[in-house]
Automatic annotation (TrEMBL):
This is General substrate transporter. It is a multi-pass membrane protein. One of its GO terms (molecular function) is carbohydrate:proton symporter activity. The lineage of its organism: Eukaryota, Fungi, Dikarya, Ascomycota, Pezizomycotina. One of its GO terms (cellular component) is membrane. Residues 17-467 form the Major facilitator superfamily (MFS) profile domain. It comes from the Eukaryota. InterPro entries: MFS_dom, MFS_sugar_transport-like, MFS_Sugar_Transporters, MFS_trans_sf, Sugar/inositol_transpt, Sugar_transporter_CS.
Amino acid sequence: MLPTLKLLSKHRAAVGVAAVASTAFALFGYDTTIAGGVIALKSFQVEFKLSTNAVKSADISSNVVALLNSGAFFGALAPALLSRYIGRKVLMTIAACFMLLGGTLQTSAQPPSISMIYGGRVISGFGVGIVSSLIPMYIAETAPKQLRGLLMSFTELSLVLGSMVAYWTVYGCSLHLKPTSKQWRVPLSLQVVLGAIILSGSFIIVESPRWLGKQDQWDEAAKALQWLRGASSSEEVRVELAEIRAQIEEEIKATSGRSIKELFQRQNLFRLFWACGIMVLAVGTGQTAILYYAPTVFKQIGFTGQNPGLLASGVFTVVKVVATILFLTLVVQNFKRKHLFLFGSALMAIMLFTLGALLKTHPPITGHAANNSSSGRTMMATIYIYIIGFTVSWGPLSWVYVGEIFPTRIRDYGMAIAVMVIWFFNFVISKWTPLIFLNLTWKTWMLFGSFNAIGFIFAIFLPETKGLSLEEMDVLFGLVDESTRRLDIEEHLGVITDTTMIGMEKGT
């Protein structure tokens, strides 16, 4: 713990940048979570006429949730298409503007028409898609390798905090506000507040030194890296700049300067396979279904009242936050990525198979607002233990792993494809989960449990990345051999001239 604290103190600038950038994931978490809670409010169901038909209600509810994912699918592509011209800072500003506009439209909706809700969800989703692709890359590119896993996991903490705020806001409005439009407008309006915070943060962060290097702005890259690493670490900056320069020039030579071609090199295709596989299986764990429709999930196990269901959902998010804090302080720096993936898959599979079996053998008794039987409490416990398993493994580490494995010149493309994959499957899950709950009932959890078993097998073969610099990933995945990379770094150490270092020092 003490070595980690010393590293955090030494690299406090990088820690601050990661913390500010991660606020975008708070709105990401809030946006993806808020719809499930708002839809569960009686005031929303009555005003938008959802309470008259169960199938119609499930269809509209799934549309409200799924449209955010459809917008996010296209938004995830924006950083790859625009990164040649626009840096990470400006893209974060653009994403915040989309989130502000989307939140405003949702809050201003005029029932019984649902069109402004739909439109606002798509626009917000586009902003969410941008930050979901952008922020893990940005933090990976600015963090020191010793802290990269920890700092990239800030995104998960922000995401679960956003989810927690969403559910408890809905629960508070359910308890203390009359069932009028104000009851559902207040939770939706907080999207605007969070969007304004993200917009402000985008103006105070530093540009990614690796993006600057890719644009051949080496003096600016040196200044940004010097600021991130601290004024007393000139030699460390020289070495890191040499690694970045060696990697970029090796990639140019190998692909005749065409960056998109690099994605289809055999070794990079393997990276894309691992990234997309992780994202598909992260959705397949079942966490997305529970997060989006937590009140429905708790209703299935016997918590049928509006407030008991929302309370159980709120406790679910608190468990996630506590588990994430434990992950950041005790786990991520001390365990290999691969071992955590394996542990999480095993624990989640066991819990979901148990939940499905209990629902089959001890279905909840109808007519009660809360299921206080021993089987009901056990089912709730399996959900809470399950989410601990997700939060210390696939939750944060899927974003960490995908954000760190691609080389600098194609990181935008690789990240965009992987994130588009997760948003596509999020769309599928969010669109069909209400109908799956209606038709499969307890078999739903057997299905998700099976996906976790597949995830366990997948993780057995996963290459380990903990403790490696971003440039060392090329050696791990066989794109370049270690001796060649070492010679290139030594050659490029001479390129980081005294003039560049003097310019760096003047910029600090």
